[in-house]
Design a protein that fits this description.
Distance between the termini: 36 Å
GO cellular component, one term: endoplasmic reticulum
Number of helices: 10
GO molecular function: acyltransferase activity
Low-confidence stretches: 33-41, 85-100
Protein name: Phospholipid/glycerol acyltransferase domain-containing protein
Signal peptide: 1-23
Number of domains: 1
Keywords: Acyltransferase, Signal, Transferase
């Protein structure tokens, strides 16, 4: 898993290079350390060993950039991302995919609890990205429930996140809230229409900066026992998130101030030569197989 993660970071670094602009409350990171690795300074983010991350869902490549944040925190081997059921079979970099069914998720999280291993559990409560159809469904849901619809996010669904928090219980103390914004998108555009996975990785159309505003909440302070109260709590967080997105589209950045920290981090391997060498060493056993398949292919079709 860690090797594949490094490979993913290398793809971003060399084919669609970007810099994170991270803003956060002062207490969001346990620490931010700059260390010297083979003569080069690297800023590493330090999160707790076990966290749950919730994020707004702007584009299908959101998970790629969250994985890069995890790499900078040296947590890329602990990542689990819950995707919508229609995406569960995508062959995306060995991603530990969980279809959105209750038994599957609970069993997986129970095993993680028993193992005591580190965990980054990532969820997108909106369920999918903004499109013409999902915008209409969000609006209809808001009207049906006598709510105001958001403008730059979809209304979140609380069931999956609540289930995960209750299953993990006291073993996971922190819920991190990532609000992601991409420059180069007009307020009237759907982000996925601007930055597609195909465009990012194959057509050279990618965001040069990815803005992430980070907040965190102690799980003991989150009302997970009552479904209705938790749904209201999550909806309030998404109203705040939508206001932050409104600010982002007006100013090209998230709000900043004396109580906020900001750090700019380029997406890059901590040690490109060592990390890439490890990747290619892992691929060496497959070279004879690739050569054999190539020979067979040319023999049949050459």
């Amino acid at each position: 898993m860690r090797m594949w993660s490094q490979n993913l970071v290398a793809l971003v670094q060399y084919f669609c290079p970007t810099t994170f602009v991270l803003t956060c409350d002062e207490n969001c990171f346990d620490k931010m350390a700059t260390e010297d690795v083979f003569g080069a300074a690297h800023t590493n983010l330090a999160f707790p060993d076990k966290i749950v991350v919730m994020a707004n869902h702007q584009i299908y490549a959101d998970w790629v950039y969250i994985w890069c944040v995890a790499y900078m925190a040296k947590a890329h081997g602990a990542l689990k991302i819950i995707l919508k059921h229609s995406l569960k079979n995508l062959p995306i970099y060995g991603l530990r995919k969980l279809a959105l069914d209750q038994e599957n998720i609970i069993n997986n999280l129970e095993r993680t609890k028993q193992s005591g291993n580190p965990l980054w559990l990532v969820l997108f409560p909106e369920g999918t990205v903004i499109s013409k159809d999902t915008r209409k469904r969000s609006k209809d849901f808001a009207e049906k429930n006598n709510m105001n619809d958001n403008r730059f996010t979809l209304l979140p669904r609380s069931t999956g996140l609540r289930m995960c928090l209750n299953t993990l219980g006291e073993t996971t103390e922190w819920l991190y809230d990532f609000t992601i914004g991409y420059p180069g998108i007009k307020p009237t555009e759907n982000p996925e229409d601007v930055y597609t996975i195909r465009g990012i990785f194959f057509l050279g159309h990618y965001p040069r900066n990815v803005h992430v505003h980070i907040r965190r909440y102690h799980t003991r302070d989150i009302p997970t026992q009552d479904a209705e109260v938790f749904s209201k709590w999550l909806h309030e967080r998404w109203v705040e998130k939508d206001k932050m997105m409104d600010y982002f589209y007006k100013h090209g950045r998230f709000p900043s101030g004396q109580q906020l920290r900001r750090v700019d981090l380029p997406v890059q391997l901590n040690n490109s030569l060592v990390d890439l060498t490890q990747i290619w060493i892992c691929l060496l056993p497959y070279v004879p197989i690739i050569k054999l398949l190539s020979t067979v292919y040319h023999g049949l079709f050459g």
